[in-house]
Amino acid sequence: MAQTKKKRRRKHRGTQGGRIDTRPARGRPRSRAEAQSRARNRSKKKGGPRVPSEPSWSSALKKGAIAAILFVGILALMGQNPITSLAVGVLMVGFYVPMAFLMDRIFYQRYLRKEAQKRAEREAQRTGAREAEG
């Protein structure tokens, strides 16, 4: 009777994570340190650049509240009068909330300017390539 199952000719090479390398190994085998550095570099590229969120008063208020709570806690641990530390916390919120909003706005506008510049450069390259062809 003819054999129905054909034996595989090559070993299936896979990683513990389930990823299978499709390309054959070239050259000398990598050392463990080289493999770890390549994996670190690959994982860094995945994240991509951080995109700042649009500035909002609610996020600034949250940041101010967290800072005030931490500040009041530190003052309480240092032995300040609780009423005094709460008053300082309220002043801190009043000062920190607008500052947090302005900082968020500065970073967001800087991000938008950089993105517009990148877009303009890409467009210039595209139009430059078209002009060179024509």
What does this structure look like?
This protein is mainly alpha-helical. The protein has a domain of 77 residues. It contains three helices and no strands. The radius of gyration is 29 Å and the shape is elongated.
In terms of quaternary structure, the protein is single chain
What percentage of amino acids are in beta strands?
under 5%
Percent helix range: 55-70%
Between the first and last Cα atoms, what is the distance in angstroms? Answer: 68 Å
| Beta strand count | 0
Uncertain runs with pLDDT below 50, 5 residues or more? Answer: none
Mean pLDDT: 82
The major β-sheet equals: none
Our count of helices gives 3
Principal-axis shape equals elongated
As a whole number of angstroms, the C-alpha radius of gyration is 29 Å
Notable characteristics:
3 helices, mainly alpha, 134 residues, elongated
Strands, helices and their partners?
Layout (H helix, E strand, L loop, with lengths): L31 H16 L9 H21 L4 H52 L1
Helix pairs in contact: 2-3
What would you say about this model in short?
This protein has 134 residues and is mostly helical.
